[in-house]
């Protein structure tokens, strides 16, 4: 029997690309360019499985591809707001993602952003490299203490819980959160966490607010000017979730005016294009969407996609089916 045809939209770690090559008739994107809508449609027309990632907009238009050969979209990534799930379902496509394997690394990046913005880590690095450091002195580059402060989590899923664990057990932080689907009481007890009951209550009480909700229509600009104004002027915002959860303009304004103290951002609305306003802000730490970017995690994500499509092609239910 001939092997199923698989198209991978971006480069993956070599070891998983090799595994794919052994199992399938696979087409790689050798120069790793972002595929156009026309190329994505071509992939849907010519392969049994298309393996996109979080930067490939698989929207309703792309999903109109005819004739459709593709049967499964094995997404490399946990977030799937780049895929029009209703349109995919309407075309009879199975869609899978890669949860769990990137939880710790993404929570680590949220911790890194929190520490970097509070303790002015990146700013200090720039200061040293630019030859501006004139020596230790009691008032030099004072930041904000993290240990013992209150961490507010908007969304309390896997990544938020992992961050809460590191922050509570490692930094003695008090955890407050809000989520329409709160975690089990055992998790809440382990973290001595408090369900604040609303986004507004979290914003009012937290010294650090970290976002952990999915992107998409429902959370678009969840943090707007009005809500940012509810944060303490000494508080910092951390976003390792999705850029469009925050209104960029409102955030830049809040950081400029100092109505909040700082922001640590791994994701941006419209990324990789960045509002130039961010670049002028010393109180913002900016990373290029590195949440899951460790070799171990990226290999695990690739393997998870492979497990999902292998199950599908063997007539079993893929473990991470979302549609
Ligand atoms: C995801 O998987 O959704 C991240 O944004 C990239 O790892």
SSE arrangement:
Layout: E1 5-8, H1 14-23, E2 25-27, H2 37-46, E3 49-51, E4 72-74, H3 85-90, E5 94-96, H4 103-118, H5 121-129, E6 150-154, H6 158-171, E7 174-178, H7 185-190, E8 194-195, H8 199-205, E9 208-211, H9 225-228, E10 236-239, H10 248-257, E11 262-265, H11 276-279, E12 284-286, H12 295-313
Helix pairs in contact: 1-12, 4-6
**Count of helical regions:** 12
The helix/strand class is alpha/beta
Instruction: Describe the sheet with the most strands.
Output: 7 strands, parallel
CATH topology title of the largest domain: Rossmann fold
CATH superfamily of the largest domain: NAD(P)-binding Rossmann-like Domain
Any idea of the CATH class of the largest domain? Alpha Beta
What count of structural domains?
Answer: 2
Distance between the termini: 27 Å
Order of helices and strands: EHEHEEHEHHEHEHEHEHEHEHEH
Bound small-molecule species: (2R)-2,3-dihydroxypropanoic acid
Task: List segments where confidence is low: pLDDT < 50 over at least 5 consecutive residues.
Answer: none
Amount of helix: 25-40%
Radius of gyration, whole Å: 21 Å
CATH architecture of the largest domain: 3-Layer(aba) Sandwich
- Give the overall silhouette: globular
What value does the average pLDDT take?
A: 98
Q: How many runs of DSSP E, i.e. beta strands?
A: 12
Please describe the structure with a list of short key phrases separated by commas or semicolons.
globular; Rossmann fold; single chain; 36% helix; 323 residues
What does this structure look like?
This protein has two domains: 5-101 and 295-313, NAD(P)-binding Rossmann-like Domain (Rossmann fold), CATH 3.40.50.720; 103-286, 3-Layer(aba) Sandwich (Rossmann fold). α7 links the parallel β7 (174-178) and β8 (194-195). The longest helix is centred in the last third of the chain and has 19 residues, at 295-313. α4 (103-118) crosses α6 (158-171). By secondary structure, it is an alpha/beta fold. The relative contact order is 0.14. The strands form two sheets. Strands 8-7-6-9-10-11-12 form a seven-stranded parallel β-sheet, with helices on both faces. The chain has a five-stranded parallel β-sheet with strand order 2-1-3-4-5, sandwiched between helices. The protein is globular and about 70 Å long. It has helices spanning 14-23, 37-46, 85-90, 103-118, 121-129, 158-171, 185-190, 199-205, 225-228, 248-257, 276-279, 295-313; strands at residues 5-8, 25-27, 49-51, 72-74, 94-96, 150-154, 174-178, 194-195, 208-211, 236-239, 262-265, 284-286. The structure holds (2R)-2,3-dihydroxypropanoic acid.
